[in-house]
């Protein structure tokens, strides 16, 4: 099914406009303002901890946002970022947008805003936006060019159905992300209660004694991380040896250590790469620490067996009992570890620093009981992450086929109410 295109401006309720520019003296109070950072960080814009600016009455009439507005990035240092589209959802107070952001307000009698949003997320929509982007040092788009960009306009009922199918996937992903955050906070709260406040099971019968880390329960120790646990530095197989790459073993860059859990590789290497190079295969459950550069001090955890580059150190319990304790200890103590970083031009932590890092060492029965307590929380968290990966893959497979009409949405047997519940 092929739908007729119309210029974007024909399906808008008012002309495209850029946001407001305000000098420093008018910032810090007033109305929330959506800036480029929020646009790149969020595909759906709603209430958040935005900066604020003072608005005039004219600004309030012409430069605020409404649910259903589309926001586009006017400029970016990379071509893929210019024209990046986000959708405004419900806002609790008048909110404006900065001058480097373009606002397009759909006419809901002609187009469903979320359908239009999904079109601009699709490969077809991104390609059309890329066609109007400048290729200078800073890539950018002009509102006048965006207004003339052709967009597909099927019947409203079809738009509604397509938007509802894709939104159901997004809403389930978002619900899972909220559950993931709650599960992580629950586990961290248990860690703090047991190992920071020392209100672990049976604490009433244990006195506190002095230690290099301050008062700790009697019978507990402070020792180097590497004395009890395995510490390993990552590595990169030689790029020139093509036979070491495009295998089936996950391998990550240090940038992935900012994820809640690592569930897939950035690239994939072969078994020969593991056996003949300085990279190592680490076990599921290992804690990862980024040790250099912009990612210094990020902590994550493997939900799969994987390798990493030389900017990552892994720590794990060879016996497998203390994986949870290691992760939450390093997450809690990472600033103390960063304080040991060396280097003048670029700070870094080396493997030896991680091995010698002094940490609390409770008796094994306590750490094992902690793992039994929070282990189910972590297992559910990981299950939700894998579920989200599957949902995203399915959504991204459907997206270009639905917004182009390649798949007739009426042929899809998807219960969107059940999917979003």
Return the domain count: 3
Distance between the termini: 31 Å
Tell me the name of the CATH homologous superfamily of the largest domain.
Answer: DNA methylase specificity domains
* Rg: 26 Å
**Proportion in β-strands:** 15-25%
The CATH class of the largest domain, by name, is: Alpha Beta
Number of strands: 23
Q: Please, what is the average pLDDT?
A: 92
User: What's the CATH architecture name of the largest domain?
Assistant: Alpha-Beta Complex
Q: Which geometry do the CA atoms define?
A: globular
Query: Helix segment count?
Result: 12
For the sheet with most strands, the description reads: 5 strands, mixed
Which fold does the CATH topology of the largest domain refer to?
Adenine-n6-DNA-methyltransferase TaqI, Chain A, domain 2
List keywords for this structure.
about 425 residues, five-stranded mixed sheet, Adenine-n6-DNA-methyltransferase TaqI, Chain A, domain 2, globular, about 35% helix, 3 domains, alpha+beta
């Amino acid at each position: 099914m092929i739908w007729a295109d119309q210029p974007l401006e024909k399906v808008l309720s008012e002309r495209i406009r850029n946001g407001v520019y305000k000098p420093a003296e008018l910032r810090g109070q007033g109305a929330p303002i959506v800036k480029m950072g929020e646009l790149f960080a969020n595909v759906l814009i709603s209430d958040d901890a935005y900066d604020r600016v003072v608005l005039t009455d004219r600004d309030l009439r012409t430069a605020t946002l409404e649910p259903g507005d589309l926001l586009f990035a006017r400029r970016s240092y990379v071509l893929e970022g210019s024209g990046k589209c986000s959708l405004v959802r419900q806002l609790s107070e008048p909110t404006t947008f900065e001058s480097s952001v373009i606002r397009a307000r759909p006419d809901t009698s002609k187009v469903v805003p979320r359908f239009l949003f999904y079109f601009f997320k699709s490969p077809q929509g991104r390609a059309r936006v890329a066609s109007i982007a400048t290729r200078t040092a800073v890539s950018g788009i002009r509102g006048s060019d965006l207004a003339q960009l052709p967009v597909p306009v099927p019947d409203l009922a079809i738009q509604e159905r397509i938007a509802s199918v894709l939104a159901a996937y997004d809403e389930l992903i978002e619900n899972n992300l909220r559950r993931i955050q709650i599960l992580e906070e629950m586990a961290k709260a248990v860690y703090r209660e047991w190992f920071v406040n020392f209100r672990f099971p049976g604490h009433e019968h244990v006195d506190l004694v002095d230690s290099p880390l301050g008062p700790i329960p009697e019978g507990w120790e402070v020792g180097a991380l590497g004395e009890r646990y395995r510490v390993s530095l990552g590595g990169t197989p030689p790029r020139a040896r093509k036979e070491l790459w495009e295998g089936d073993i996950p391998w990550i860059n240090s940038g992935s250590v900012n994820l809640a859990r690592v569930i897939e590789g950035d690239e994939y290497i072969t078994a020969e790469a593991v056996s003949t190079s300085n990279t190592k295969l680490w076990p599921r459950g290992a804690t990862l620490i980024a040790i250099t550069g912009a990612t210094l001090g990020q902590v994550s955890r493997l939900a799969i067996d994987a390798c990493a580059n030389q900017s990552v150190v892994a720590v794990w319990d060879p016996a497998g009992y203390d994986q949870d304790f290691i992760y939450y200890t390093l997450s809690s103590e990472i600033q103390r570890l960063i304080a040991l970083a060396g280097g003048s031009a670029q700070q870094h932590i080396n493997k030896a620093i991680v091995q010698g890092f002094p940490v609390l060492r409770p008796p094994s029965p306590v750490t094992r009981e902690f793992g039994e307590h929070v282990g189910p929380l972590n297992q559910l968290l990981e299950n939700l992450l894998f579920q989200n990966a599957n949902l995203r893959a399915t959504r991204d497979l459907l997206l270009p086929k639905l917004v182009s009409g390649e798949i007739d949405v009426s042929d899809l047997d998807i219960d969107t109410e059940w999917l979003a519940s």
